[in-house]
């Protein structure tokens, strides 16, 4: 249930709903700055059939992060490097989580096999295993 809510929330945050004028007001950036960050590959807003940029809440967060990093003294190349490192870390976490989930499934399968062969209840339950690792 919590996973479903998290997924639904992420889908909503990724929906391209905001035109550039609204994003300008939310971020206090100029249209030129936003277009420049797009040219540099830092953001990739959705384009409508009429080629209008539409931004998601995630895009707005990304623009605010870019703005903060620039104010801290990083240049565009440095920001690209920061984003690359974040993507690598997120990719590693995702693969670690997938591995972890597969390990849990494997443990539960073995417990169920043992329980069926010995006509016993399994010693471990999925909820117990998850609670231990969180």
Automatic annotation (TrEMBL):
GO: which molecular function terms?
DNA binding; DNA-binding transcription factor activity
Q: Which InterPro entries match?
A: DNA-bd_dom_put_sf (IPR009061), MerR-type_HTH_dom (IPR000551), MerR_fam (IPR047057)
Its domain of life reads Bacteria
Has the keyword DNA-binding been applied to this entry? yes
Q: Which CDD domains match?
A: HTH_GlnR-like
Q: Where is the HTH merR-type domain?
A: 17-85
Classification via Pfam families: MerR_1
Q: Which UniProt keywords apply?
A: DNA-binding, Repressor, Transcription, Transcription regulation
Q: Which SUPFAM superfamilies match?
A: Putative DNA-binding domain (SSF46955)
Identification of the protein by name: MerR family transcriptional regulator
